[in-house]
Amino acid sequence: MASTQPGERITLRKLIWVGPLTLIATVIANLVIRTVAVLIFGVPETFQFLQAPSVIGSTIVFLLAALLVFGLVNRFARRPIRFYRILALVLLCISFLTPIMALTGQIPAPGMNLSIFWTMIVMHGVSAIVIVGLLTTLAREQA
Predict the structure, then answer these.
(1) Three-class secondary structure of residue 140 per DSSP
(2) Which of 69, 95, 105, 68 is closest to 84 using CA atoms?
(3) What is the Cα–Cα distance from 125 to 127, expressed in whole angstroms?
(4) How distant, in Å, are the alpha carbons of 6, 31, 43, 45, 68 from that of 36?
(5) Domain boundaries, the chain
(6) CB atoms within 10 A of CB 17
(7) Contact residues for 32 (Cβ-Cβ < 8 A; gap 6+)
(8) pLDDT category, 10, cuts 50, 70, 90?
(9) CA-to-CA distance for 28 and 34, rounded, in angstroms?
(10) Does residue 99 carry a pLDDT above 70?
(11) What is the mean pLDDT of the chain?
C-alpha cells in the first residue's frame, strides 16, 4: 500500500461510534423528509416505498453497504477519503435511476407521481450528504 497524506485515513476506533451516529442521523433525516412530504406536499403516506418501516429498513441496508465500502476504500485506496467522496457521488447518481425508473413505469411502483419522485430524490441526496459528510470528517485520523 502506498503512503498517504496525513488525515487521509480513518481509524476503526472512531468508526465504531461514527457508524451508529451516521445511521441515526440518516434515518432521522429521511423520516423528517418523508413527514414533510406527506404533510406539506401531499405525498400519500400509503405509498409502499415511503412508509416509515420501508424508509428505515432501506436506510439501514444501504448505510451498512456504505460503511463496508468505506472500510474497503480506506484499506486499499491511496487517498481514501477523496476516493470515497468521488465514488459516493457516482453511486448517488446511479441511485437516482431507481426513482426515475419508477416514475417512467420501468419498475412497478403503483401510485408513483412527481411529488413522490422528488421526495425520493431529496432523500437520496440528503442521505448522501449526511453519510459522506459524517464518515469522512468524524472518522478521520488526526494528522
Answers:
(1) strand
(2) 69
(3) 5
(4) 41, 9, 9, 11, 31
(5) 44-138
(6) 11
(7) none
(8) confident
(9) 10
(10) yes
(11) 92
Task: Give mean pLDDT, residues 48-68.
Answer: 95
Name the residue with cell 487517498.
79
Q: Cell numbers for 128, please give them.
A: 448522501
Q: How far apart are CA 114 and CA 121, in angstroms?
A: 10
Average pLDDT over residues 25-47: 96
Beta-carbon contacts of residue 3 (< 8 Å; ≥ 6 apart) = none
**Residue 141 pLDDT:** 82
Could you tell me the pTM of the whole model?
A: 0.90
- What Rg, from alpha-carbon coordinates, does the chain have? 17
Please give the span between the terminal C-alpha atoms of the chain, in angstroms, as a whole number: 19
What cell was used for 90? 457516482
Report CA 30 to chain centroid distance, whole Å. Answer: 10
Range scoring the smallest mean pLDDT among 10-14, 20-24, 68-72: 10-14
Residue 127 one-letter amino acid: S
- Report the amino acid identity of residue 78: R
Which grid cell sits at 3?
503512503
Looking at residue 4, its pLDDT comes to: 52
Q: Compute the distance between CA of residue 123 and CA of residue 143 in angstroms, rounded to an integer.
A: 33
